């Protein structure tokens, strides 16, 4: 058995690091126990008689010295909840330290005694816990979002069922009214021009009510698509044929610029036609007070990275970076969007048109259809000229983009289905 | 000779007005049946040139009536025009006429001139 003083044995077997510095002699170390050797990876034989600046980095040593001086000056114990020292082999050790000023009666020296607990493991596990927690919070948020989407989809589903039911009930009385108007329209009294006007208004009213219920059903029933690979130029051509009447009547000039070799897009033709028709009709309406009515339809393909660079990070949610997308723009030189309306354009039933002229469902239906295609639809003012740009971003791959989860497809509308076969 | 049309729809007001309109347009003799359960019997006694049939009706719906007509040789050949207030946007968008086999489906509210054209086509005046 080696000969040691009790104090020495106790000190060397303590689970905490203990050291002492002589404040009256340049804060040189006069005590350095075993645990302190372990924590700092510096042997007592090397440390004793040295100061912090001989043993640690400049920054650490400066810091230790400032604490030591404060301890002496205040003559009171100081707690350092966490300090980090870097050992020679590059390991970071986290310590919780108490520094005590001691006046040694025997020698008359002023000492700083330090006791440090190695809390590296605790800190590490805390960090890990925090990381885990952050991950959990993120996962939870994601789950909540998914749940919100599901609730939203569910809501739409029940609105859809409600709308279909209401539509059926409303259409029957409308049918009766229209037949009444039809009957009265034959052989009206030519001496009273009011009658013709009244009947025309009644007919328009029936038509408007019919469009509203149909729009509502459309809006809430856009759930599934039957998509096929198609050229955008083809569909644009078809749509222009369908709106030809509107265009000539309003004396609107249309130019089409489609980039050559545009990749295929996967579209539900009839639904997508509906989108383009809505947008073109909107443009025509927006130009009603303009002299030279012009619509430009432009399509080009871009890699999504460029789009993100130009449009901000929002697209990341919808598309994967690196994807090739097709950008379709419908540009008009109409009245543009009033600042206060920008946030509401896509709300169902939002319209600035006179009662009877717009139901305010066009854009909301259009956006819903585009989103079902995994795409994005925005409407904004042109930056240089008067007018608005409707911009569609469409994926060129079938699997790209968000797919609305199929919601309980067994749930059918409660009204008996059309029987088409004899 | 006037062409005979049988109207089957549970909405009495609607059938009445449709009858008035058809008769006013000339050349039609119209009979109304508001009870779909009686539709086949009405067809048998009236022997119409065409039947205008609502889809959604209590009791038998339009499809049921149609199916039963098919089983009776003397009635199977009578052309049927279906009317419906259902909004199945895929089949009936823009008031399009959805055609399946020999059968026509027109949306409600009914476009009278379209119905007249359709009837003109399926039962031409001799
Ligand atoms: N190209 C455009 N330029 C300026 N404003 C527009 C344009 N397109 C739409 N808007 C504005 O957005 C509103 C909503 O459009 P949306 O298509 O949803 O409904 P609507 O055109 O009013 O009615 P509906 O399309 O149902 O007949 C319009 O009333 C109009 O104020
Ligand atoms: Mg619109």
Could you explain how this protein is built, in words?
The complex is a heterodimer of chains A (422) and B (126). Chain A is 45% helix and 20% strand. Chain A is built from twelve helices and twelve strands. Chain A has helices at residues 6-13, 34-40, 44-47, 52-55, 58-74, 120-185, 193-221, 232-242, 244-249, 269-286, 304-311, 362-372, and strands spanning 17-22, 28-32, 78-86, 92-103, 110-118, 228-230, 253-258, 265-267, 294-303, 324-332, 376-381, 388-395. In chain A, strands 2-1-5-4-3 form a five-stranded antiparallel sheet, with helices on both faces. Chain A has a five-stranded mixed sheet with strand order 7-9-10-12-11. Chain B has helices at residues 12-25, 39-46, 62-70, 73-76, 89-92, 112-122, and strands at 3-8, 28-33, 50-54, 80-84, 98-100, 103-107. In chain B, a hairpin with a 2-residue loop joins strand 5 and strand 6 (103-107). In chain B, 39% of the residues are buried. The structure holds adenosine-5'-triphosphate and magnesium ion (MG). Residues 278, 281-282, 358, 362 of chain A line the site of magnesium ion.
Q: TL;DR?
A:
The complex is a heterodimer of chains A (422) and B (126). With 422 residues, chain A is of the alpha+beta class. Chain A has helices spanning 6-13, 34-40, 44-47, 52-55, 58-74, 120-185, 193-221, 232-242, 244-249, 269-286, 304-311, 362-372, and strands spanning 17-22, 28-32, 78-86, 92-103, 110-118, 228-230, 253-258, 265-267, 294-303, 324-332, 376-381, 388-395.
């Amino acid at each position: 058995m080696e000969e040691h003083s009790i104090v020495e044995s106790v000190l060397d077997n303590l689970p905490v690091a203990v050291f002492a510095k002589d404040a009256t002699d340049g804060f040189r170390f006069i005590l350095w126990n075993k645990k302190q050797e372990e924590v700092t990876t510096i042997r007592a034989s090397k440390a004793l008689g040295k100061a912090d600046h001989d043993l640690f980095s400049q920054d650490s040593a400066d810091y230790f010295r400032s604490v030591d001086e404060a301890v002496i000056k205040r003559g009171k114990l100081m707690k350092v909840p966490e300090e980090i020292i870097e050992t020679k082999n590059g390991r970071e050790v986290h310590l919780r330290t108490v520094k005590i000023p001691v006046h040694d009666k025997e020698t008359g020296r002023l000492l700083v005694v330090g006791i440090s607990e190695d809390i590296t493991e605790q800190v590490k596990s805390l960090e890990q816990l925090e990381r885990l927690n952050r991950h959990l919070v993120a996962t939870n948020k994601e789950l909540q979002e998914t749940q919100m989407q599901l609730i939203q989809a569910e809501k739409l589903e029940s609105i859809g069922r409600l709308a279909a039911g209401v539509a059926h009930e409303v259409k029957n009385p409308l049918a009766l009214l229209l037949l009444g108007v039809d009957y009265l329209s034959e052989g009206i009294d030519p001496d009273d021009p009011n009658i013709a006007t009244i009947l025309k208004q009644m007919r328009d009213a029936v038509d408007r009510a019919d469009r509203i219920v149909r729009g509502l059903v459309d809006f809430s029933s856009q759930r599934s698509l039957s998509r096929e690979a198609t050229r955008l130029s083809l569909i644009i051509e078809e749509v222009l044929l369908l709106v030809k009447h509107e265009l000539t009547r309003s004396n609107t000039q249309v130019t089409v610029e489609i980039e050559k070799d545009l990749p295929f897009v996967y579209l539900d033709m009839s639904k997508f036609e509906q989108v383009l028709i809505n947008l073109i009709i909107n443009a025509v309406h927006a130009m009603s007070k303009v002299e030279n009515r012009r619509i430009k339809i432009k399509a080009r393909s871009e890699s999504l990275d460029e789009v993100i660079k130009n449009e901000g990070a929002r697209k990341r949610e919808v598309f994967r970076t690196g994807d090739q997308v097709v950008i379709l723009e419908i540009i008009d030189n109409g009245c543009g969007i009033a600042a206060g309306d920008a946030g509401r354009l896509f709300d169902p039933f939002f319209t600035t048109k006179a009662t009877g002229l717009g139901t305010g469902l066009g854009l909301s239906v259009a956006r819903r259809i585009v989103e079902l295609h995994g795409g994005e639809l925005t409407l904004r003012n042109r930056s240089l000229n008067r007018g608005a740009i409707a911009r569609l971003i469409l994926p060129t791959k079938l699997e790209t983009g968000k797919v609305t989860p199929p919601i309980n497809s067994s749930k059918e509308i409660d009204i008996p289905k059309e029987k088409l076969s004899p | 000779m006037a062409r005979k049309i049988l109207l089957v729809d549970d909405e009495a007001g609607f059938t009445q007005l449709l009858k008035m309109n058809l008769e006013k347009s000339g050349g039609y003799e119209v009979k109304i049946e508001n009870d779909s359960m009686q539709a086949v019997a009405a067809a048998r006694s009236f022997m119409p040139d065409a039947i205008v049939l609502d889809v959604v009706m209590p009791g038998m719906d339009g499809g049921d009536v149609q199916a039963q007509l098919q089983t009776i040789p003397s009635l199977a050949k009578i052309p049927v025009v279906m009317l419906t207030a259902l909004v199945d946007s895929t089949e009936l968008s823009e008031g399009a006429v959805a055609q399946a086999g020999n059968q026509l489906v027109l949306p409600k509210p009914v476009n009278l001139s379209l119905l007249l054209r359709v009837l003109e086509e399926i039962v031409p005046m001799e």
